[in-house]
Amino acid sequence: MKDNSQNFTLGYWEVRGRGHPVRMLLNYLGVNYKEKIYKFSKKEEWFEKDKQLINMDYPNLPYIDDNGYKLSDSTAIMNYIPQRFERNDMLGKTIQDRGRVQQLLGLCADFRTIVRNLYFNENWKNILNKELEKPRQHMKIFNQILSRQKWLVGDYLTIVDFQFYEFVHLYRNLAPEENDTYKNVNRFIYDFSRIPAINKFMKSSTNLNAPGFFPPSFSFIDSAKYHQQLNQKFLNGDYDI
To answer: Which residue intervals define the domain GST C-terminal in the entry (predicted)?
Structure first.
């Protein structure tokens, strides 16, 4: 692995959101990074100050600053990090697996978009069951894939596992009555949570202090309670090896 002790910064809001897969990946790879956390109570720090001064073609959150090289877009960042730290295997060990990773990243993005939109819809209670029809199909696909193998691409971790782990919790918060339906997904969550670096990160202040998946003032669906319950499982040692 290349020297990771140089200046590497991740900038994102204080919530989990699109930043958490990046945080988990950096912690998994042992990258000694700094984080610039933007608070919603002081959102002008990003919109009126840093966004204007950051000198990027596409200033957005999350972003990374790798010794002056700046990149935004969470998927682009997830693709960049393994290459930067000489872990190209996390993008797929073969050309077929690399194609599979990108395909599944697209599936995860579709899945997240539909589920995320429900959190920001004040009429969500009336449309929840109908709007979850397509994500249910996604969940069936993921569950079927995980019936054949430990991780989404095979017997080794790739960046799509980090994305899926975060996004599946958005779904579980909306449809807790379905949790037992997807037993292979449940096994995946358990195995991923027991990865030492992930387990350690989930007990860190960065994770514990997040108010939830989305800012409470903008989301019509509470995610703080689910986030706290999930954190408690880590603190109780439910996922300890």
So the answer is: 94-213
Whole-number Å distance between alpha carbons of 168 and 115: 9
Tens-digit pLDDT profile for residues 48-69: 999 999 999 999 999 999 999 9
Specify whether domain 8-89 bears CATH 3.40.30.10.
yes
90-236 fold: Glutathione S-transferase Yfyf (Class Pi); Chain A, domain 2 (1.20.1050)
Q: What confidence tens digit (pLDDT) does each residue in 77-113 have?
A: 999 999 999 999 999 999 999 999 999 999 999 999 9
Reading the block at residue 237, the tokens are 């040692």
